[in-house]
Specification:
Elements lengths: L1 H9 L6 H38 L3 H51 L1
């Protein structure tokens, strides 16, 4: 299935709606799982910095907290930008397809 899809894309053929939905759902599911795992681990690690501060290791705790906060912000920004561009290009493709269909309907009449 995967090789057939790659070969059809190389030949310039487009994916069917079913193939496109399956591809998008796998990609979306993977991205959501990855972001969820990264954020969960980062939030747990952030709590560890409070334990270090309580034990008297303030410098390590401060460095760890800022690094984890940077990671959380970076992951979320990346995820939001990915979602923004995906939505933008999906809507653009839908609009272009509608315009193409309207042009074809106008010339066929």
């Amino acid at each position: 299935m995967r090789n057939a899809l790659r070969n059809s894309i190389r030949r310039g053929e487009t994916m069917t709606d079913e193939q496109q939905k399956r591809y998008n759902s796998k990609l979306t599911t993977f991205t959501k799982k990855a972001v969820f795992a990264i954020l969960t681990i980062a939030l747990i690690d952030l709590q560890m910095s409070y334990i270090l501060a309580f034990m008297g290791k303030e410098q390590i705790a401060e460095t760890l907290s800022s690094t984890i906060a940077d990671t959380i912000i970076g992951v979320m920004l990346g995820y939001f930008l990915k979602a923004l561009f995906e939505t933008f290009f999906e809507k653009r493709e839908e609009r272009l397809n509608r315009e193409l269909e309207q042009m074809e309907d106008g010339t066929n009449e």
